[in-house]
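Lecture 7 notes: from sequence to structure.
We start with the chain below.
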Amino acid sequence: MEQILNFINNHWDLFTALIVILVLLFASTLLDAIRGIKQIGPAEATNLINHQDAIVIDVREDKEFAGGHIINSLHIPMAKVQSKLAELSKYKTSPVIVSCRSGARSNSICGMLRKNGFENVANLKGGVIAWQNASMPLNKK
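Predicted structure tokens for the same chain:
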């Protein structure tokens, strides 16, 4: 215990940075929970797609999407999602998985969808990168 206190005393700047990072991580997770956004991995996404007919909305740009996307995903670039809400309204009660490259853009779109009445929205945690790392297939057509 004394060593820990000595470390904190000698390296208060590093300890403060650690505390700030932990608070930010906790706050982000708590905020997503409050907003009703689930963070799911590739395995859970596959389960939702196969067993609950979840729709996948890919919010990446055209070039990114053309480089490989989740099979049967609906491509709507992030900047166009707001204007496509009327078309997407038929999925308000269906499971919706939003994906992007890393999960950051899709997380903000999940918040937008929740605010617009979508009941079952999930963010693909880690995005298409996580999907690829899990050895899941991508469609390049």
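Points to note: Helices lie at 2-10, 12-35, 42-52, 62-66, 85-88, 104-115, 127-133. The chain has a mean pLDDT of 91.
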